[in-house]
Amino acid sequence: MIINFGILGAGRISKIHCHNIYNNQRAKILKIYDPNTKLSKRLARTYKAHATEHDLDIFTDSNIHAVVVGSSTPTHIKYLDLANKYNKDIYCEKPIHLNLKIVDACLKRLKNHKNKIQIGFHRRFDSNHLLLKNKIIQKKFGNIEQINISSRDSSLPPISYLKVSGGIFKDMTIHDLDILRWLLNDEIVEVYAQGAAMIDKKIKTVPDFDTATMILKSKKGILCQLSNSRRFSGGFDQRIEVYCNEGNLNLNNVKKSSIQAINNKEEIHDIYPYSFIERYKESYVRAIDYFIDCIKNNKKPSPGLIDGRNSLAIAEALTESAKKSKSIKVNLNDY
Amino acid sequence: MIINFGILGAGRISKIHCHNIYNNQRAKILKIYDPNTKLSKRLARTYKAHATEHDLDIFTDSNIHAVVVGSSTPTHIKYLDLANKYNKDIYCEKPIHLNLKIVDACLKRLKNHKNKIQIGFHRRFDSNHLLLKNKIIQKKFGNIEQINISSRDSSLPPISYLKVSGGIFKDMTIHDLDILRWLLNDEIVEVYAQGAAMIDKKIKTVPDFDTATMILKSKKGILCQLSNSRRFSGGFDQRIEVYCNEGNLNLNNVKKSSIQAINNKEEIHDIYPYSFIERYKESYVRAIDYFIDCIKNNKKPSPGLIDGRNSLAIAEALTESAKKSKSIKVNLNDY
Amino acid sequence: MIINFGILGAGRISKIHCHNIYNNQRAKILKIYDPNTKLSKRLARTYKAHATEHDLDIFTDSNIHAVVVGSSTPTHIKYLDLANKYNKDIYCEKPIHLNLKIVDACLKRLKNHKNKIQIGFHRRFDSNHLLLKNKIIQKKFGNIEQINISSRDSSLPPISYLKVSGGIFKDMTIHDLDILRWLLNDEIVEVYAQGAAMIDKKIKTVPDFDTATMILKSKKGILCQLSNSRRFSGGFDQRIEVYCNEGNLNLNNVKKSSIQAINNKEEIHDIYPYSFIERYKESYVRAIDYFIDCIKNNKKPSPGLIDGRNSLAIAEALTESAKKSKSIKVNLNDY
Amino acid sequence: MIINFGILGAGRISKIHCHNIYNNQRAKILKIYDPNTKLSKRLARTYKAHATEHDLDIFTDSNIHAVVVGSSTPTHIKYLDLANKYNKDIYCEKPIHLNLKIVDACLKRLKNHKNKIQIGFHRRFDSNHLLLKNKIIQKKFGNIEQINISSRDSSLPPISYLKVSGGIFKDMTIHDLDILRWLLNDEIVEVYAQGAAMIDKKIKTVPDFDTATMILKSKKGILCQLSNSRRFSGGFDQRIEVYCNEGNLNLNNVKKSSIQAINNKEEIHDIYPYSFIERYKESYVRAIDYFIDCIKNNKKPSPGLIDGRNSLAIAEALTESAKKSKSIKVNLNDY
User: Fold this and answer.
1) Amino acid C332: pLDDT
2) pTM (2 d.p.)
3) Which of B240, B297, C155, D147 is 20 to 30 A from C224 in CA distance terms?
4) Are B224 and B216 in contact (CB under 8 A)?
5) In chain D, what residues touch A270 (CB-CB under 8 Å)?
């Protein structure tokens, strides 16, 4: 059986998902909705789908099995509720919402949901991250004692974007938080964060930070460090260090090529991809393919609602910590 | 306009091309032929094409614009002639033939061919190789003074394959020879080769070598070294060193992941892909896409017939050199 | 003029200094003192010096120009005072003392000291660290925006040592703190630390930590991260990341050899030196040679007293922060 | 017992040996001879030795146990004979002589020599080379199947030097030949070489080559490749690849630092040492220390006369091969 998809949103992230669903031999795109019909029509033409003018139309269409939510953050809760009501499996981009209370209310309503819900933490599906996770599971080097994550984007987004982003912790760190929880297989209970405006002082007017450093403690007492910046001269920085009692596992940056040049001053290597789209192209393919797998084989997808919720809870604690310059306990809630 | 393809041969290499043509939005597969109809039918089913029982049917079909020849080596000449006769553009796997005289006769017959002819030296389309070539063209480090190429396969093929392969120089080295000519932008005029049976003494009964080292001199006097083995413990070895008067350019092996593990004895990295199919997956996609480009924009494809012919001429000289243990002049013939 | 040295202490660190002074053509060892005369006699024999039974004898000897203090921490203040009184130049091992108040009182007494005082932060003299500092001074990549330091020893010292060590921050982190201040060319004003007992739970009885993570903020607002562990499976870990507005500078670990092995599973490199003695052998040579330089050319040595004092002040703040789990302001005192 | 040395020659290489003997606690320099007495006097002053005006004086001095020959190549044979006659142990720089017949006559005369003779192939004492040799001896990866060596100097020496050097094979390749024989533990029986003038056409008037590529076959049938150039933009290039049946061992170039810089275009590493003196500083120390060891413990040093002789024999075969462009059998003579 081919899984028929409806797509909500026709922006950058939806384009990626449409491309991957279109090229997945087990799936097909039926309908695309976006309040901007120019965008939805253009996307529909490329991927041989129908551009609908009503989002509800996607949920009521009985030919559609699953939806992908790539629309703006404030719409996510509404679509999660509709997917539950109309029993559509749903792949929902992160974050669920910028406000933890609203997310918690939603989780309560969806407590007994029957549909598949997958949250768009695509990085879990990157081959390097999967290899790392695998080696941790195999306990090749014993037990985890510390995890450090470094994430740096290639450049500062426009202030207009930053104003609706929810701040660096909810917008950017949240991906690291999901990876951290996944690798640790443990919950973060206490955090400390410091933020700074190193790239552009204007960011203080948002108010937000462009640079952040964090210490996070897990339930088992494992100490973790996170380091974020909105700008990395070398392109796109995403590294992980996992210290275990019998050895280390490091996920290094991916180089642009295997070319090494040597002149009379230095040895030179091509640098790292400039954006998550280049570096994580394949992880988006695998994330959707895994979602289709879960639908076809009736498995519960992971990362699910609780992962979206708990990463947001940590991000909220980090935001508060950076504001108050003190340790903050994470509001944990195991559903 | 969509380019309609006919496929000759339904083995391993044709499968790769079918997959890439099927996923190319500018192309479509109409017909597939293989003497083994089981194979052609299975491939036709996967890629929504028709399995024909007569190869000629592909050439006479006026809906077909281009053919891909992935059939056994002895059939290549016949299909090149048919493509010329029926004016089909043709992507022909290497080598054109194992006998230089037969190739030269074919080149004479096709001297005034109007159709596009591309020879399947896919490695030229690998992103790392393209980057290397680009840096050489830009003369970043001045003029080339030496090129060394190392190629090692993951394991020795069965003796049955080796018996029809034409020997290590025509079967394996030929890829390095094409890359060497392409990077040098010069012809090889004199060669010296030594071969050995290091992996399996039985290879002497073919007779063939499993290991070979070569020195090649170009028209401009540039000295090059090649080193081949049928078995590399670390997977698949393909490296190039280009020495220029103001610096070096090296194409290193591609690692399997960006994971680095450290235990109490060593630092460990995941090794190299096990086969050309893993390492050069994208180069096959680009090779076919470039062929389609040439058809649509009426450009002459490169590598063309003369590249297939001249690489074979060098391979023949190497074969003779290894047998006689002396330098051999290459039979050059610039058409 | 040859600089004549007196040595206080005949333990591990004094042995290193004796070896380097003995091999320095501008210096000579005259006398060595240690309360354990077996040790001082053995050292004196090796380096053709005299073992004295009274430490004061070294200060009153008018042939001695300079002293090296490698004795136990509690004796450092006494020897600094004596060196001042008898006008001997002094190279004093870190830390000056474990108690900041006692150090401050000493600094007050020595306010107008005429003798040269160098504190034994040898790492500043490591060729890699010097290169890094140089590139920062040249502003190759603009201004510093973040510095991260990772230091891990090869194994946990015995609990008996840890009991008199002053704790991980004063014993181990202090080296990182000196390097951090030196690279930043700025003072640390506020710190946050978390400690854990990951290697051996017994360390809690000291009480101390074997693992620590820290966030430090400088006067200019630069955020820094430190990560320490008493045990690194891979040997000895000392890495620095310097993020600037136009690029990064990283000091990586030093490999044991340039050998790369490849088997059928992995690529293997020899790991890092097992101790600071292996990795920093040359830095001790340079530190003493620089001290001799300062004496001969009448230059004020750096790192000096204030560097020993301020690094200790940060270490004290870190100790308090880790105990209270909150940010602590550093007691700065610019003499 | 302290070993007393006499030094013949006061040029660049003798300076290195003097420095190392002077700093070796088991040795002392008594006398230094050079036809240029200015040079010998200066060296004698630095290392507290006596500058003699007659080379014979060094051999007849009964206080001298051992001599180091760092004088010009044509004098080596004479000093080997004198060392034999006066029973002095001798460390003689390579090559023994540029003419194989003269070397063979010398070896005949010295057939029953009682003194220790070590030939100055210092590279065998480099820690990376020793590690490589060790791993080969341990058969970690099985049996050797191929060895490739790449050696490139930083720049072309003056034509005046090249005229008396004996040509690239006897002057430069000879070091690689010694390392190759040592690693292989087998003799080279047949060689093929190609030379070129890529750096400076004037070198043809010497006549000599500045660039050379070689294929060498061992008695056991192992194929080896050598690649030499008088100029490497990146500094000093010395790499070895050892292919075994169960894996590879590679000796890579040594980087100048562990600093990695990243800007917005590239990742940059400091390059390789500019000369053998920087890269092999420690190997000269170890070579002399090993020689002293052999004297004190009455062991036969290795590399000895036969190693100097056989490497020269291969170099002669390579010279002839490059001239005639054909394979040449090596004149082997196992004494």
Assistant:
1) 87
2) 0.94
3) C155
4) yes
5) 266-267
pLDDT bracket for residue D334 (50, 70, 90): low
pLDDT at residue number D97: 96
Task: Judge whether C96 and C72 are in contact, CB under 8 Å.
Answer: no
pLDDT-derived band at C189, boundaries 50, 70, 90: very high
Residues of D in contact with C252 (CB under 8 A): 258-260
Nearest-angstrom CA–CA distance, C72 and C9: 7
Q: Look at A147-151, A216-220, B21-25, C69-73 and tell me which has the smallest mean pLDDT.
A: B21-25
Chosen for mutation from B20, B47, B130, B258 (greatest number of chain A CBs closer than 10 Å) is B258
SS3 B299: coil
Residue D335 pLDDT greater than 60, yes or no? no
Q: Of the candidates D178, D194, D229, which has an alpha carbon nearest to the alpha carbon of residue D321?
A: D194
Q: How many CB pairs under 8 A join C and D?
A: 75
Check: CB of residue D80 under 8 Å from CB of residue D92.
yes
Which helix H or strand E contains D162, and what residues bound it?
helix D159-164
pLDDT digits (tens, 9 = 90+) for A106-128: 999 999 999 999 999 999 999 99
**Half-sphere exposure (Cβ direction) of D312: Cα atoms closer than 13 Å:** 23
Contact A234 D271 (CB under 8 A): no
Residues of A in contact with C222 (CB under 8 A): 196, 198
| pLDDT at residue number B102 | 97
Report the C-alpha gap between D48 and D51 in whole angstroms: 10
Determine whether the interchain pair A254/B258 forms a contact, defined as Cβ–Cβ distance below 8 Å: yes
Length of chain A: 335
Q: Are strands C247-251 and C259-262 parallel, antiparallel or unpaired?
A: unpaired
B271–C267 CB contact, under 8 Å: yes
Distant-in-sequence, close-in-space partners of A207: CB < 8 Å, separation ≥ 6: none
- Preceding omega of D74 cis (within 30 degrees of 0): no
State which amino acid sits at residue B254: V
Nearest Cα to D240, choosing from D193, D175, D287, D190?
A: D175
B252, pLDDT greater than 90? yes
DSSP C125: G
CA distance D79 to C224: 63
Q: What is the pLDDT of residue C7?
A: 98
**Nearest by CB to D215, which of B141, B215, B221?**
B215
Q: At what angle do helices C281-296 and C127-137 cross, to 10 degrees?
A: 60
What band does C140 get if pLDDT is binned at 50, 70 and 90? confident
Radius of gyration of chain D (CA): 20
Pick from D235, D264, D270: CB nearest A233: D264
Q: Answer whether residue A217 shows pLDDT above 60.
A: yes
- Mutation pick from D153, D262, D265, D275 vs chain A, by most beta carbons of A within 10 Å, is D262
| pLDDT band, residue C335 (cuts 50/70/90) | low
D233: nearest CA in chain A? A264
What is the DSSP-derived secondary structure letter of residue A252? P
User: Which subunits have 3 or more CB–CB pairs within 8 Å of chain A?
Assistant: B, C, D
Cα–Cα dist B85/D87, whole Å: 87
**What's the pLDDT at D306?**
96
Min CA distance, C274 vs chain B (Å)?
10
d(C-alpha D156, C-alpha D162), whole Å: 9
In angstroms, the CA B168 to CA B214 distance is 12
